[in-house]
Fold this protein.
Amino acid sequence: MTTLVSETARTVPPGLVSLLHAGGMTPADWVSVLTLCYLTLQIGLLLTRYIHRFQRWREQKERRQRRREET
């Protein structure tokens, strides 16, 4: 049982590198692509969050101005 685990552990890194070379991309290329995907997702999430905050801030500002005008 332990020899099976140790043999498997020894073959995983080369197998992973071989798998990453699929499609002609090196592991460094895959890291770059995944990093860009991660950054795109983070930027998208932040933009929507900040847009909602800005809209709420603008609505509150307009309400305050209307109250001042009424008095």
Remarks:
- Helices lie at 2-20, 27-70.
- The mean pLDDT is 84.
